[in-house]
Design a protein that fits this description.
Largest sheet: none
Structural class: mainly alpha
Shape: rod-shaped
Strand content: under 5%
Helix content: over 70%
Radius of gyration: 23 Å
Length: 150
């Protein structure tokens, strides 16, 4: 493991770990907004329905809040963003693990394996632009698939 290419893979790990942490933070926020928002909407609509007389005009406010939150979720796609960040976090983690396994690959197959890692990274980085609610996605072509010799 002495070539410049090999060392480049290992310096890449720090950048990948930064991306993993970033997606982890956003995943937690979007998870809270999606799951917490869903629970809040259910509680608000249930309370407004069951306790309509007791709550008076507060029932209308609860219903308005529920409608607003549902509309906000539709626009900002908290659920889709939560799943997106989870998938990206897992994808970057998988690439870090591929790099960790690099030294176990037979030397005559390392160049192919290294290219496979870079191809996987290219595909994953391209997905960064696909965040739900983020607008138009650039149409980039993926690199040709490489197969590691067995």
């Amino acid at each position: 493991m002495g070539t410049n290419e090999d060392m480049g893979l290992h310096t890449l790990v720090a950048t990948l770990r930064t991306s993993i942490e970033e997606h982890s933070r956003w995943r937690r926020l979007d998870s809270f907004l999606w799951n917490g928002g869903t629970a809040a909407v259910l509680l608000a609509t249930t309370a407004a329905t069951i306790f309509a007389e007791e709550l008076g005009s507060w029932a209308s406010l609860l219903t308005a809040f529920a409608g607003f939150w549902v509309a906000l979720e539709r626009v900002l796609s908290f659920g889709a963003r939560w799943r997106f960040h989870l998938q990206m976090q897992n994808g970057y983690t998988a690439i870090v693990e591929m790099i960790d396994y690099y030294s176990y690959i037979p030397p005559d197959q390392q160049a192919t394996y290294r290219q496979h890692i870079l191809d996987e990274l290219f595909v994953l980085r391209r997905r960064e632009a696909e965040i739900p609610g983020g607008g138009v996605v650039a149409n980039l072509e993926a690199p040709p698939a490489h197969k590691v010799a067995s």
